[in-house]
């Protein structure tokens, strides 16, 4: 089960109060995870991911990073939703979304190591968070469109990157080349049977074997960097 909770914090930016999906760990706590959404909000796929990590023993927070523009925003995965989501990103700005992620990291940190995993927009934000935020033990970035443009940023924690070979939005080889040029030690995984959004079980671009392999690699990364 996941519960929606309201976090109030005083950020250096605006002290905004936002909502987040929260799930308690099942069994012994292994660490904390911040799950970062796609441009569709905290939809069924994000909540499924929150529950999946909680079942593995992690305390999970998924911030609703569009709350400043439209509280509780959730959209279907259809073409009409893309300009709305992109508009929310542009109106809020990356700095404020990162500040919400930092607030979640800060909340989880007193109880153990904190990790981040994100998808699409969230994949980009994981990459940026690994450079600009504090307190992350490791991050797993899935098909983020901003990763290549920000590949040269210094990283403060280990990161892995997942890309779909059939992704019509993000050229996997170009992203891999950009990241490897700046960070040859960062693992870049390209999944040959998958397109964009392949972590979302049941979606047209999803391949279950690829999704499970990426989740296993993400779990192994977290375990290698402090997850009990």
Which terms would index this structure?
single chain, Rossmann fold, 8-stranded mixed β-sheet, 6 helices, 228 residues, alpha/beta
SS elements, strand count: 8
- The CATH architecture comes to 3-Layer(aba) Sandwich
Q: What is the CATH class name?
A: Alpha Beta
Helicity range of the residues?
A: 25-40%
Lay out the secondary structure.
Layout: E1 3-7, E2 18-23, E3 31-36, H1 44-55, E4 58-63, H2 81-92, H3 94-108, E5 114-119, H4 121-132, E6 136-142, E7 159-164, H5 172-182, E8 188-191, H6 208-224
Helix pairs in contact: 3-4
Structure overview:
With 228 residues, this protein is an alpha/beta fold. It has one domain (3-224): Rossmann fold (3-Layer(aba) Sandwich). It is built from 6 helices and 8 strands. The chain has helices at residues 44-55, 81-92, 94-108, 121-132, 172-182, 208-224, and strands at residues 3-7, 18-23, 31-36, 58-63, 114-119, 136-142, 159-164, 188-191. Helix 3 packs across helix 4 (121-132). The radius of gyration is 16 Å and the shape is globular. The model has no long low-confidence stretch (mean pLDDT 93).
TL;DR of this structure?
The protein has 228 residues and is α/β, with parallel strands linked by helices.
